[in-house]
Amino acid sequence: MSDSDTQNATDALRTPIVAVLGHVDHGKTSLLDKIRGSAVSEGEAGAITQHIGATAVPLETVSTMAGSLVDPDDFDLPGLLFIDTPGHHSFTTLRSRGGALADIAILVVDVNDGFQPQTEEAIDILKRTGTPFVVAANKIDTTPGWNPQDGAPIQQTYEAQSQRARSMLDERLYEIIGQLSDSGFSADLYWRVQNFQKNVGVVPLSALTSEGIPDLLAVLMGLSQRYMKDEMAIDVSGPGAGTVLEVKDEKGFGATLDVVLYDGVIRAGDQIVVGGTNEPIVTEVRALLQPRPNAEIRTEKRFDKVEQVGAAAGVKIAAPDLDDAMAGAPVRVVRDRPLDDVVEEVRKELAQISVETEEDGVVVKADTLGSLEAMANALKEAEIPILRAEVGDIAPRDVAVASTAGEDVHQVILGFNVEVLPDARRELEESDVKLFSNDVIYQLVQDYDEYVEEIQRAQQ
Ligand code: GDP
């Protein structure tokens, strides 16, 4: 942001956007649920705000939860916005203006399990996007002889353990710290870290008992306040900018966008530009929707209409012509600018996520633009050529395209985190096209390599 921007009279600090990632079963969902749940049980009404795709925890709630660890007077950031859906590491590959959509990440690692393939993948992505992160060393309650200390900061709890429990936990924690170091990050237990920009803080915690969660919140808050304040300064009345989390059909609204807004404001009636599979889509916001508190899933009225939403926030946008919109694509409000400029901006941003395709190769489908890019990078490294790469579920057209590949080993579809549409499944059965589907990139590459070897052996 330029100086003139930061001196704008309507400048304010927005909420940092936090993503949770890590290997399956390491406790991402439990951790998010716990943060939301404890916020609600400890605070009054308004302790958190449920957005579309995200949960906002205001500073006051963070400070209630974190007790002596967070003095609200030390902070001027408004709180933390957690992206709700963990697990799909694609979330960390969601971009904003070339960087990562998330400002900070929590990397959850099960202390019993250490680094696993999805932990490694997450680390690679964090490295590539330069996203600061904190490690949640989860499930410390499973340490044999664990002795919880009610409500104490985790350092105190850690120091109060029997020698036996302490040394068992230490062994696990230092293995994680060692693995972080092997990945190029100097890390330590968070209370020993002086500079969170240089070193990764490891917070031992339990998503089951909540021990250590106040500490995690305090570290996230402190890290953003100290090192990210400049990036959080936005023009609150400027044209909104966001990233599509998901494109969803909603009864009564047709295709809608679940968006995380990271800049400016979006209003009902605004003209917007959205990244589409072919061309940027130009349309007008018909309604901005937020989840209705306590709404039953089955009731028709699951959403409340709001007139405007300011960053950072999650919101559902209902508008015509959104069928071709892509998860991971940029959304821009046009307001007070020439439409052509905004279209060009969206086109440029999409072009940054370029995937090189060849005359012959495999077909790649992925759930978001970011994950498509991550797939393309992994395939390039493995020297696997790509014939076509697209965001979206596997459709009959993909089977048709894959069957046109020249070499047998290229008549393949690699699907990352996507579904196979019923028609495509039928076509797959009737064709020679082979499908590999997974939500772990390295596994897809490995499965494909093994398949190629198998074919080559059979041909000898
Ligand atoms: P995710 O796949 O990373 O979202 O993992 P989940 O949150 O679904 O957790 C996987 C399993 O680990 C579940 O059975 C949880 O109950 C359990 N679990 C998560 N966190 C903890 C923890 O801190 N302690 C213990 N003992 N179990 C946990």
Automatic annotation (TrEMBL):
Binding-site list for GTP: 22-29, 84-88, 138-141
A GO term for molecular function: translation initiation factor activity
Keyword Nucleotide-binding: yes
Protein's UniProt keywords contain Nucleotide-binding: yes
Keywords (A to Z) from UniProt: GTP-binding, Initiation factor, Nucleotide-binding, Protein biosynthesis
Record-annotated Tr-type G domain positions: 13-228
Family affiliation: Belongs to the TRAFAC class translation factor GTPase superfamily. Classic translation factor GTPase family. IF-2 subfamily.
Function: Function in general translation initiation by promoting the binding of the formylmethionine-tRNA to ribosomes. Seems to function along with eIF-2.
Protein name: Probable translation initiation factor IF-2
Encoding gene per record: infB
